[in-house]
Amino acid sequence: MAKSGQGQDPDMTAAATMLKRATELDSESKFQQALVCYQEGLDLLLRVMKGIKDNNKKCNLKAKISHYMDRAENIKKYLDQEKEDGKYHKQIKIEENATGFSYESLLKEYLNETVTEVWIEDPYIRQTHQLYNFLRFCEMLIKSCKVKTIHLLTSLDAGNRTEQLSALDEIKRSLRSHGVLLEVEYSSSIHDREIRFNNGWQIKIGRGLDYFKKPQGCFSLGYCDLDLRPCRETTVDIFHNKHTKKL
Fold it and tell me: Cα 232 to the chain's mean position, in Å?
């Protein structure tokens, strides 16, 4: 890729940055993330090519596009085969006090328009801050995919039951206004934490949705934007199973 410089097409500069990131992720065997970057970079290069009149420049750019497109296609085939064989496994370790791990940042690459149904198993959607976590997770789904049904399996909070039921009922009504059905079930024996999307992705977070630290105050950074909220140490395991089971 040509180096960015003064007067260069901003799309070309953005493409160079994106494709540089793609090759870095590729070299680190972070193939799912690399594929997303390759695709975004290629979209930008194709946009640039439409405005090029010089035939030599256009030919050079076509060669670059072909190179990156071939690599992206190979990665896609590899990932598709991994998914087909049930071998895909990615692990993310979130360190103590790390930031940049909002639900959207963590899961956006696994959400697309094919996701219409989501299953969440988490015993700790009970206390006020945990209910807010669940609300934020639902907001993320509304923005990131075409979800129509959300299934939540959690446990009842004996000491906070009235507030828990009231909050979940309010979330249910709010989701309904967006055309989304929330189905809530309760279990006294639930322990595991798991999120499943009907496109086959399965996410296990050690602490469930409650991996954020308490904010320092209502007017401190990270109170609203979870990307700025320090996290508690936890591990995220991501799998793919084309036969996503229902609860």
Answer: 19
3-state secondary structure of 61: helix
For the entire predicted model, the pTM comes to: 0.69
The 10s digit of each residue's pLDDT in 182-216 is 999 999 999 889 999 999 999 999 999 999 999 88
Query: 228-242 pLDDT, tens per residue?
Result: 999 999 999 999 876
What are the backbone angles phi and psi of residue 89, rounded to the nearest 5°?
A: -150, 125
| Token duo for residue 45 | 């290069």
Looking up tokens 């390759």, which residue turns up? Answer: 38
CA distance 64 to 80: 24
Helix (H) or strand (E) holding 202: strand 201-205
DSSP string, 93-162: EEPTT-----HHHHHGGG--TT--EEEEE-S---SHHHHHHHHHHHHHHHHHS---EEEEEE---TTSHH
Helix axes 55-84, 31-50, angle to 10 degrees: 150
What pLDDT does 246 receive? Answer: 46
Cβ density class 55-81: b for 16+ within 10 Å, e for less: eeeeeebeebbeebeebbeebeeebee
